[in-house]
Amino acid sequence: MKAAVILLPGLNRDRDMIAALTHVSGQAPLTIWQTETSIPDDIELIVIPGGFSYGDYLRCGAIAARMPVMQAVREKAEKGTRVIGVCNGFQILLEAGLLPGALMRNASLKFVCREVRLEVANASTVFTRGYTQGQILRCPVAHHDGNYFTDADTLADLEANNQVAFRYTAETNPNGSLNNIAGIVNRAGNVLGMMPHPENLIEAAHGGSDGRALFESALGLVDA
Amino acid sequence: MIKARVTVTLKNGVLDPQGKAIEHALGGLGFSGVNSIRQGKVFDVVLETSDRAVAEAELKAMGEKLLANTVIEDFSVEVI
């Protein structure tokens, strides 16, 4: 399966993401600059990495979400192409309306950079099938605006449709997210947004490889 | 040209940790009568048009498309 990484000014986790995808799949992903208006047909996984696109001006991800490439991402997503947004990438997907809700300033008002524990809340998505239901993962977070918020009806829908892919364990929720939400998928199940950084736990040299199964799943390297 | 102001505020029921922190800081400065503070944003916009109706329609579209995140924010438009 061929992957592409979206590049925008101010992202800073793009190299980590490219390295993770290359390591897991054995081939370097295509990189696509923000001004591109189309994404090749053979791309089956699109990843938007983390960072501080457009300096977090206005709102995190707000400007990036309105760049031309995001219209192309939207068109691919509507056709079923898999899309992952990590950290700022998650914020961009929310601002683009590809996922429901918003990410607000952390409840502590502090930037958090630490390791958390994640529970796999739904192991049947195309992104999480390499994990077992309820499995607890180690994963780093690094963000200032990761406090997931949505209205009560949308939250109830997310839960009823099993769209919460990852939750922080209650003790390690770093930002005050509703229902300890760390990552969600869209209704169709082909778009994932998450605040933690699985691309930083791929091989032993990272101190662990709990993030690897996410990319193996997304790249179709795990038996369905 | 038309000058206008777009004000973006958090919707009712949306937590505002920054507003809370400001509220506490005001208490620390001795302003004891503050019941609540909600932080928002103000955009002062100058438009080329001189048609008020056109300006209002444009500003409303700007608010919906970019200036506010309508999941968590409301906005109002005021032509000055």
TrEMBL record, chain A:
It catalyses: N(2)-formyl-N(1)-(5-phospho-beta-D-ribosyl)glycinamide + L-glutamine + ATP + H2O = 2-formamido-N(1)-(5-O-phospho-beta-D-ribosyl)acetamidine + L-glutamate + ADP + phosphate + H(+); L-glutamine + H2O = L-glutamate + NH4(+). Its EC number is 6.3.5.3, 3.5.1.2. InterPro entries: Class_I_gatase-like (IPR029062), PRibForGlyAmidine_synth_PurQ (IPR010075). CDD domains: GATase1_FGAR_AT (cd01740). Its main location: cytoplasm. The active site is at C87 (nucleophile), H197, E199. GO terms for cellular component: cytoplasm. One of its GO terms (molecular function) is ATP binding. Keywords: ATP-binding, Cytoplasm, Glutamine amidotransferase, Hydrolase, Ligase, Nucleotide-binding, Purine biosynthesis. GO terms for biological process: 'de novo' IMP biosynthetic process. It is found in: Cytoplasm. Pathway: Purine metabolism; IMP biosynthesis via de novo pathway; 5-amino-1-(5-phospho-D-ribosyl)imidazole from N(2)-formyl-N(1)-(5-phospho-D-ribosyl)glycinamide: step 1/2. Part of the phosphoribosylformylglycinamidine synthase complex involved in the purines biosynthetic pathway. Catalyzes the ATP-dependent conversion of formylglycinamide ribonucleotide (FGAR) and glutamine to yield formylglycinamidine ribonucleotide (FGAM) and glutamate. The FGAM synthase complex is composed of three subunits. PurQ produces an ammonia molecule by converting glutamine to glutamate. PurL transfers the ammonia molecule to FGAR to form FGAM in an ATP-dependent manner. Part of the FGAM synthase complex composed of 1 PurL, 1 PurQ and 2 PurS subunits. PANTHER family: PHOSPHORIBOSYLFORMYLGLYCINAMIDINE SYNTHASE SUBUNIT PURQ (PTHR47552:SF1). This is Phosphoribosylformylglycinamidine synthase subunit PurQ. It comes from Hoeflea halophila. The lineage of its organism: Bacteria, Pseudomonadati, Pseudomonadota, Alphaproteobacteria, Hyphomicrobiales. The gene is purQ.
TrEMBL record, chain B:
Its EC number is 6.3.5.3. It is an enzyme of class 6 (ligase). GO terms for biological process: 'de novo' IMP biosynthetic process. The keyword Ribosomal protein does not apply. GO terms for cellular component: cytoplasm. One of its GO terms (molecular function) is ATP binding. This is Phosphoribosylformylglycinamidine synthase subunit PurS. It comes from Hoeflea halophila.
